[in-house]
Design brief:
Length: about 190
């Protein structure tokens, strides 16, 4: 089962922790700090949702695309998700071995393959998608009625930032953050 407000990755908020820490006051207006805190909290909680899905978050994205029939074929899927074609091939191998997707010949172009979710893949995606919504709701619960406006603004800001600095591989951003986090831990630990 995925994270819930009572799971270890989504800690309960005590009365003492309900008020912002002094560091939050000192960093008020610091976009980098705010984005970092949100991303860290989201990644920890969402990590449980991706457990058991081959490829973790990338595998989930591929499965979501297959379930929702967002890509006409494997090449289009790679482009839409910003995943290198070679990496996508390995992800599909793993997802197919787990019985979550199948590759079938594209009726419009026999040289390409369509990625189709299996019944098992659809069921897993529906379960994990609902869990991910609960995680998102929990992470953003402090916004109350402003959640919808925040999401709209965040999506607009992200789309604009992507136009300014396009990322061909969407997973590259998370990999860069992971590398930076690891370097920071080594620096602090030494």
């Amino acid at each position: 089962m995925g994270p819930s407000p009572k799971s270890p990755s989504v800690p309960e908020q005590s009365a003492a922790s309900a008020s912002p820490r002094p560091s939050a006051d000192a960093l008020k207006g610091d976009l980098g700090w705010a984005l970092g805190v949100l991303l860290r909290t989201y990644r920890r909680a969402a990590g449980e949702v991706f457990n058991g899905i081959p490829g973790g978050p990338r595998g989930y994205q591929v499965l979501a695309s297959a379930v929702q029939e967002l890509a006409g074929n494997q090449g289009v899927m790679a482009t839409q998700l910003g995943i290198d074609r070679t990496v996508l091939t390995y992800l599909l191998d793993d997802l197919e071995a787990a019985g979550l997707v199948q590759r079938r010949p594209d009726p419009l172009d026999r040289r390409s393959r369509r990625v189709v979710a299996t019944d098992r893949g659809r069921a897993l995606w529906e379960e994990r998608s609902a869990e991910l919504c609960r995680v998102e709701d929990h992470v953003l619960s402090g916004l109350g009625v402003d959640v919808g406006a925040f999401r709209d603004l965040l999506e607009r800001a992200a789309a604009h930032a992507d136009q300014l600095d396009p990322t061909l591989n969407a997973c590259q951003v998370v990999e860069e953050i992971d590398a930076q986090d690891a370097a920071e831990l080594r620096r602090v630990g030494s």
